[in-house]
Amino acid sequence: MARLVMKFGGTSLTDVRHIRNVARHVKREVAAGHQVAVVVSAMAGTTNQLVAWTAEMAPLHDAREYDTVVASGEQITSGLLAIALQDVGVEARSWQGWQIPIKTDAAHGAARIVEIVSDRLIERLARGQVAVVSGFQGVAPDNRIATLGRGGSDTSAVALAAALNAARCDIYTDVDGVYTSDPRIVQKARRLARVSYEEMLEMASLGAKVLQVRSVELAMVHGVRILVRSSFTEPGAPELAGGNEPPGTLICDEDEIVEKKIVSGIAYSKDEAEISLRRLADKPGVAAAVFGPLAAADINVDMIVQNISEDGTLTDLTFTVPTADYERSHAVLERAKDQIGYEIIQGSTEIAKVSVIGIGMRSHAGVAADCFKALAAKGINIRAITTSEIKISVLIEAPYTELAVRTLHSLYGLDNT
Amino acid sequence: MARLVMKFGGTSLTDVRHIRNVARHVKREVAAGHQVAVVVSAMAGTTNQLVAWTAEMAPLHDAREYDTVVASGEQITSGLLAIALQDVGVEARSWQGWQIPIKTDAAHGAARIVEIVSDRLIERLARGQVAVVSGFQGVAPDNRIATLGRGGSDTSAVALAAALNAARCDIYTDVDGVYTSDPRIVQKARRLARVSYEEMLEMASLGAKVLQVRSVELAMVHGVRILVRSSFTEPGAPELAGGNEPPGTLICDEDEIVEKKIVSGIAYSKDEAEISLRRLADKPGVAAAVFGPLAAADINVDMIVQNISEDGTLTDLTFTVPTADYERSHAVLERAKDQIGYEIIQGSTEIAKVSVIGIGMRSHAGVAADCFKALAAKGINIRAITTSEIKISVLIEAPYTELAVRTLHSLYGLDNT
Questions:
Q1: Tens digits of per-residue pLDDT, B72-88?
Q2: Which residues of A touch B84 (CB under 8 A)?
């Protein structure tokens, strides 16, 4: 018997039939003797429709009104799921952010949770009532609804699990776990039974879109164990008991991972674009002249490579920005051309970032060298490199993405055999 | 300069374009120097969809969850209208029932407003901010959302007008006022400039579906003047100033109506069905034996006619029930057949009730006699009659409805010439 948070995303709540299926998943856990709080997203498509209406009404609009409109999607699914649970004999009630309350800061549209007042929830859970909590929302200091930003329901679930001191936060989604790579590209990708917070953070931020990055950070800070699993499996199947691994992927502290693999996964991202400034004066302060205006325009620069010229007076600078900011970055740099003092600006959106991730790298040398050698052997040109303690990222031409990912997946022994 | 409540129904809020149009209506009143609170319904169709989902999930469901789901429609339109108002330069914010708060009783699904805490709204209105209030909802003593029952936004608007001591409550709808009869049937129907609360109550309950009955009752109790008007007119047109009649129909105390007409309108309803019990024992307690079981089944009986038999031992009893309850009424009476002691049960849904309404009737004799004579002259058989101080209703066969309504409309001089 444990306290559980179960979170269901929009694709698990698309209609009455799907919501009934979710109710059966919840009933299974209640029948197993657990105290259960459920966090729900809006029906798939609803949030996009609501966001589109606010944008159509006025491109620049009051974030407090945006929150009022957009948070209604979760209000609908929370009420419907409570009805579905009662219909299968499970005592349940819905909770909106302002009712609990889930207190946020004043940053409407992208608020952060400050506090979850959990006393009443805990009391109800102890009495056997399931709490169905609207994800993605809370109440700001002005007593108005605040939303947490897109994908915020994952964050709601993890924060609630922390507040309730839950044994686990189960994130139900349309995939059955976290894989060693994208199964659409790598047929031999395997589901990971366990992955550490640090690895998951790298994977999430690199395009493995299973979980929102913020929710993983929050889980790491509060030590919330997350189980990523599918809502499309048979809800009636009893859980494996005792020491067996549960279905899905457990995201946990690395201390919980006994057998640490050197490399856990290969991620990739096509959401970055490359910009090169040619024949830049190689003098102190030039980097600030380039990246200052970009930072002022709220554009995140990721990988940076500087090639020093032969005579030491001119240089080339290459870096990546999110593809969505590519045009804007160009405009910012064109405007700042005279202050920076470059000759040519070039760029491409036809690039990809491929990353090798694994906590085992910390204690193993030669992982990076193996990577570069294997890619070279396939004729794949590396345009830039960044590394961290548990990650190696390389920038390559986009058409080579799949080849590079498969090559590295095999290289580090991740292929399912 | 006055304080106004403006209420817009779902057909005035169907999409972004319609909501923009509503914003222009509001802007016109603000520009005229008025303090404005707006009450909104959900987009047309939204509430029906939400209600359908709750019913599909479970035919019998928790009214508190129903309220949570269904109230989200108004949350969406209130936020969108606030954005639209800001976009045309009008300071505005949305208010949900729990934020004001609009306190209701505990009767979730059909709650009554107990109190509207208006201090903060009045303060904001005085500062020139438009309050956009979600209609149809409030917050119950359990701190959960409560809805007022279908059509409840009219009630929200009138209650808010009373709480704010507003000069007028303008109900914008898809018709431009209250007519002497249904214009789809009577081409010569005229818009009434003014109509008393009492008359409007009779018209509303008899099928002139412009306003919810409860909102008119509430307006009468609190002396709230209601102006029914169209949202589809040009919003930019300035209001007529001073003593001129505003567009639409003003529903007010009869003291405000200088020229009292004998008859103000002819209403009809096809939502009633007739049931006859034949050869009933004519003894004390038989009426209780018939109407007791119907009342216990929550079925409202309207018109009742009893024909006493020649020998005084047997009788026929005829009465009307809502068409929606017709089958159920039959079943109830079949079950109680032995206790009641009748021989034959007959019935028809092919009947209509036509009513002549007017406060002037109080001081004029012969109105009813004229009605019966005119219908007889057209060969229309009257199956039952009920009268009140300001109303005469007759039950006729449904195919004669249009003929009867037009005949009476002409008879009492209501035709537009």
A1: 999 999 999 999 999 99
A2: 57-58
Nearest CB partner across the interface for B72, out of A72, A83, A87: A72
* CATH architecture group of domain B260-417: 2-Layer Sandwich (3.30)
CA distance, residue A41 to nearest chain B CA (Å): 14
**To 10 degrees, the CA torsion angle through A23, A25, A29, A35?**
-40
Instruction: Kindly identify which residue of chain B lies nearest to residue A56, measuring between CA atoms.
Output: B16
Q: What is the pLDDT of residues A260-281, one digit of tens each?
A: 789 999 999 999 999 999 988 8
Which architecture, in CATH terms, is B3-254? 3-Layer(aba) Sandwich (3.40)
Domain extents in chain A = 3-255, 260-417
Tell which of B43, B60, B67, B69 to mutate to test the A interface (max A CBs under 10 Å): B69
Structure tokens at A48: 């996009």
Give the DSSP per-residue string, B136-154: TEEE-TTSSEEE--TTHHH
Q: Which of the pair, B239 or A52, is modelled with greater confidence? A: A52
The residue among A43, A49, A53 with the most chain B CBs within 10 A of its CB, best to mutate, is: A53
Choose the mutation target among B62, B77, B136, B137 for the interface with A, i.e. most A CBs under 10 Å. Answer: B62
By Cβ distance, the residue of B58, B73, B93 closest to A87 is B58
pTM recorded for the entire structure = 0.86
Helices (H), B33-147: 46-57, 63-70, 72-87, 119-126
Average pLDDT across chain A, whole number: 92
The answer to whether A144 contacts chain B (CB < 8 Å) is yes
Amino acid letter for position A63: A
Mean pLDDT of the residues in chain B: 92
Confidence of residue B237 (pLDDT cuts 50, 70, 90): low
B19/A69 touch (CB, cutoff 8 Å), yes or no: no
* Residue of chain A with shortest Cα separation from B68: A79
Q: B139-168 burial, b for 16+ CB within 10 Å, e for fewer? A: bbeeebbbbbeebbbbbbbbbbbbbbebeb
Neighbours of B245 (CB within 10 A): 10
Contacts B58 to A, Cβ<8 Å: 83-84, 86-87
Any residues with CB less than 8 A from the CB of A212 and at least 6 apart, and which?
A151, A152, A154, A155, A204
Residue A65 C-beta-side C-alpha neighbours within 13 Å: 28
Residue B415 near chain A (CB below 8 Å)? no
Q: What is the mean pLDDT of residues A306-331?
A: 86
Question: Which CATH class name applies to A3-255?
Answer: alpha beta
What is the per-residue pLDDT across B120-154, written as a single tens digit (0 to 9) for each? 999 999 999 999 999 999 999 999 999 998 779 99
Q: Is pLDDT larger for residue A305 or for residue A37? A: A37
B79 touching chain A per CB within 8 A: yes
